[in-house]
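tokens incoming
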């Protein structure tokens, strides 16, 4: 018995995920792709992972640059997610007309995102038809606050506008569930377990 790809997608679609755009810059050219296979791995040192399809046009850029940023999208950035998920001139030639700044690595930090994580690749692992990249966090930010692992790097950033933009507390993440974009609501909210 074999596992059917379509049924595997259907089963995995039962797990709601956040939506993010992974960006990088290699030899002066920006690249990005929409991902939902992203998670934190370690607190000490701070590590995250992303999974990238072997056929992705962004894969060579991440390998070449050795850096990537994860841009966690708000529920108002569905258009960006769709653009970075398609093969169009808008994506490849115009970077989806996205406004951005740089943090530590030079990877584009998209304006208006809920949060960002800027990383340096520390490992790459084969994973079937995908590649797993492990990135060590060198900068991150949310709610108008950005922090850097190396204070000297802050001199190279142009994130000054980011510090002036506090995310509205009513801003929610863009989510994906059962093959569709979803929007969370504050109608039901309950504190998580005590830490």
């Amino acid at each position: 018995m074999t596992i059917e790809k379509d049924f595997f997608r259907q089963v995995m679609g039962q797990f709601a995920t956040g939506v993010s755009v992974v960006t990088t810059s290699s030899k002066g050219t920006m690249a990005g792709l929409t991902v939902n296979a992203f998670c934190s791995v370690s607190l000490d040192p701070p590590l995250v992972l992303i999974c990238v399809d072997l056929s992705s046009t962004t894969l060579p850029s991440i390998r070449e640059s050795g850096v990537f940023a994860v841009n966690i999208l708000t529920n108002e950035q569905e258009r960006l997610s769709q653009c970075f998920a398609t093969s169009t001139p808008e994506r490849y030639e115009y970077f989806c007309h996205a406004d951005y700044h740089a943090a530590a690595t030079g990877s584009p930090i998209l304006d208006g995102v809920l949060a960002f994580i800027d990383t340096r690749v520390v490992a790459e692992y084969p994973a079937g038809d995908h590649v797993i990249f492990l990135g060590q966090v060198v900068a991150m930010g949310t709610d108008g606050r950005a922090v850097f692992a190396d204070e000297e790097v802050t001199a190279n950033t142009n994130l000054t506008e980011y510090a002036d933009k506090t995310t509205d507390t009513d801003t929610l993440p863009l989510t994906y569930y059962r093959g569709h974009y979803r929007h969370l609501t504050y109608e039901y909210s309950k504190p998580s377990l005590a830490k």
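note: The domain at 19-183 is CATH 2.30.110.10 (Pnp Oxidase; Chain A).
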